[in-house]
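Regression test case RT-17, inverse folding.

Input:
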């Protein structure tokens, strides 16, 4: 099943909702970062959470979420935009963990003490930034805490992940529901109770259920319409040109030092793409930097 997002509207109940599957993009991130099982699970939660938040945005807007905790993985960063492009990384993708650690327990691997930061580029003069303390260490619960407290939008988030025996991502996906403005919160609470009665989301997806089928099981007595189905993919915005710009910004002294060394290597944190600039390329970049100054 290819990765995609389903957007629904339950107008009578005053709810909007999202359901997605993100297995393929999680596995691509795992391969790019050579992530261990715990890092793979953390990436699955972060990339899925970012995809859900990104689907709430308007065209050309972006969102980034960052978890900095006291666990061995240290930090998780995931970004997404309104077009379904997602990328992310963990600070220590091969961190050592005790053998009895459950790799799916992000409260242990990322930590339960720390901060969740959400940054939105809404194409305004300044970025929007919301910061909350980690509430449980489980990203879906912490996103609910953030959305309810920081954005003050009654929300329900569920992220499901299952790993293969070899540590890959067997399945990953998520749900997000929000009350529409000026609507009663009771339908959202009823939906949360219904979700508790179902099998965990990861098990439903692993059993072959599609996001549409999960929604149908959850919204049995709630009329709704599917507004849109959008593909999701792992895609990084790094490029040779952006790497050149980063080198230009280093200034004359540091560029001269790199020329003396013979090359510069720019690694992208998000996708592990490596850009190598030889002496001749660096000399041209130094000329550009001097023209700018």
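Golden output:
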């Amino acid at each position: 099943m290819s990765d995609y997002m389903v957007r629904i509207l339950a107008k009578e109940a005053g709810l909007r909702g999202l359901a997605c599957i993100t297995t393929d993009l999680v596995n691509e991130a795992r391969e790019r970062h050579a992530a261990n099982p715990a890092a793979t699970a953390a990436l699955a939660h972060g990339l899925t959470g970012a995809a859900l938040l990104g689907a709430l945005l308007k065209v050309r807007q972006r969102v980034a979420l960052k978890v900095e905790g006291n666990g061995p993985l240290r930090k998780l960063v995931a970004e997404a935009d309104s077009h379904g492009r997602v990328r992310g990384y963990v600070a220590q993708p091969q961190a050592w963990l005790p053998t009895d650690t459950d790799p799916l327990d992000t409260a242990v691997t990322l930590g339960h003490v720390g901060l969740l930061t959400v940054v939105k580029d809404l194409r305004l003069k300044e970025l929007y930034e919301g910061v909350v303390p980690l509430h449980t260490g489980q990203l879906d619960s912490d996103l609910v805490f953030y959305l309810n407290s920081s954005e003050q939008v009654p929300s329900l988030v569920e992220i499901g992940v299952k790993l293969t025996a070899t540590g890959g991502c067997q399945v990953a996906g998520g749900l997000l529901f929000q009350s529409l403005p000026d609507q009663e919160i009771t339908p959202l609470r009823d939906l949360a109770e219904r979700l508790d009665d179902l099998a965990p989301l990861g098990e439903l997806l692993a059993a072959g259920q599609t996001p549409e089928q999960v929604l149908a099981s959850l919204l049995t007595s709630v009329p709704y319409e599917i507004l849109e189905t959008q593909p999701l993919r792992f895609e990084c915005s790094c490029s040779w040109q952006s790497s050149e710009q980063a080198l230009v910004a280093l200034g004359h002294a540091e560029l001269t030092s790199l020329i003396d060394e013979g090359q510069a290597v720019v690694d992208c944190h998000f996708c592990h793409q490596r850009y190598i600039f030889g002496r001749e390329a660096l000399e041209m970049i130094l000329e550009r930097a001097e023209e700018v100054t």
